[in-house]
Design goal:
Blueprint lengths: L1 E7 L5 H18 L5 E7 L7 E9 L3 E9 L2 H23 L6 H11 L3
Parallel strand pairs: 1-2
Antiparallel strand pairs: 2-3, 3-4
Helix pairs in contact: 1-2
């Protein structure tokens, strides 16, 4: 997955970039293993003392998942946004699964045999 980390008025250090890449690759591997890209943007306003983190992930079939979180430090803001994106990945993966694939076929076969 192509992961880009940027900052608005924030210096994104190597440790933060590594942490972002590891976490997003873990989420991607758990649910899809084929997400296209992710853009992570950290920001800090001139008058607020906290950080914002915005994650935009693109998965196949044109689906875009977005999450934003605010916290006192950049790592906590990313953790909150990553949890929200992970929930979106999980729900999307659940929607893609065909939960009823074996049940109708079995009922149909039972009806043909006269068992049901």
């Amino acid at each position: 997955m192509d992961i880009r980390v940027s900052g608005h008025q924030v210096d994104t250090g190597e440790s933060l970039r590594t942490r972002v890449a590891e976490r997003l690759n873990a989420i991607d591997g758990k649910y899809f293993s084929r997400a296209i890209s992710a853009q992570v943007t950290f920001g800090k306003g001139p008058h607020d003392h906290g950080f914002t983190c915005e994650v935009v992930a693109h998965v196949p079939q044109g689906v875009v998942m977005k999450a934003t979180d605010k916290a006192a430090d950049a790592n906590a803001a990313f953790d909150g946004a990553a949890e929200k994106v992970e929930k979106q990945f999980r729900r999307h993966a659940r929607r893609l699964k065909d939960h009823h694939s074996s049940a109708p076929q079995a009922a149909f076969e039972d009806g043909l045999r006269g068992d049901g």
